[in-house]
Amino acid sequence: MSESIFMINNFYFHENNLQNKINNNYRHEGESLKKFKDDCYDLYKKNQNKITDIDKEAIEDKVIFLSNYYEAFDKFNEGNWITHQSKCKPTILEEFCGYLFKDLPIIKELDLNFFNKKIYAGLTINHYGKVDIKTKDVDFCIGKKIEAKIVEENYEFIVPIIAIECKTYLDKTMFNEAQFSSQKLKYGSPNVRTYILSHANQVRLSEIPRKGQSSIDQLFIISDDKGKVISDAVYEFFIEIKEELDKFQKEIKEKKIGGILL
């Protein structure tokens, strides 16, 4: 499989985290972090980027590379000296979303991109009479950067189409926080689709709202009880996002008789 000519290059959230730790000599282990990046991460990134197909087999290959990299990272981080608070391991899944969706044709056709900072969540007027753009950080967002003039001032903001919260595990507090974040995004962009992607779930099923009763459109759990990433679950997630994006390109035919709300 040839490497994609069209390459989005700003979704390497895990690589950026590793490089920042190298630059800052995190816990005086900058050299060992650099060696790990050179020996393990760079090969992982190369292998993921070489996959440009979007069929089930391609997704399975991406999951294999992901699982192998998790194993290498956990071995390197034995004893958890790279703390969870440093947000290194969680960025693996965030970056993986980029590898999953980078070759969807609609990404190029609609000039979409991947983001995780300052996603549009509405606007207000402050006490000076100026426009304040409200934003939210999201673990992974598919959207478009927009430039607009409002009251003679130029603004730049990112309009989300898909927003994903990526979790190593999900508890009730995290779920409630994700719902609150989703509500804020939908206040500014009512058509945005919001998701939670998590390895493990610690929320009781009885406490998870039914579909349509939460601001979260869907929750995907992708690992089994032993922590193994299941490719069928990842593929189901991939198809869900692909189909939502494809809806943007479908022509809506006008219906004049009978129920007309689409």
Number of domain modules? 2
Number of helices: 7
Bulk shape: globular
Tally the beta strands.
7
Query: How far apart, in Å, are the first and last alpha carbons?
Result: 40 Å
Strand order of the largest sheet: 1-4-5-6-7
Topology pattern, helix = H, strand = E: HHHHHEEEEEHEEH
Rounded to an integer, what's the Rg over CA atoms? 20 Å
Describe the largest sheet: 5 strands, mixed
Helix content: 25-40%
Strand-residue proportion: 15-25%
Q: Given the helix and strand composition, which structural class is it?
A: alpha/beta
Provide the low-confidence segments as ranges: 1-7
Mean of the pLDDT scores? 91
Please tell me about this protein's structure:
- The chain has 262 residues and is α/β, with parallel strands linked by helices.
- The protein has two domains: 9-103; 105-248, no CATH class.
- It is built from seven helices and seven strands.
- It has helices spanning 13-23, 30-50, 56-76, 90-101, 105-109, 172-188, 231-246; strands at 113-115, 119-125, 131-136, 140-150, 153-170, 193-201, 218-221.
- The strands form two sheets. It has a five-stranded mixed β-sheet. The protein has a two-stranded antiparallel sheet with strand order 2-3.
- Helix 1 (13-23) packs antiparallel against helix 2 (30-50) and helix 1 (13-23) packs across helix 4 (90-101).
- The two termini are 40 Å apart.
- The model is unreliable at 1-7 (pLDDT under 50).
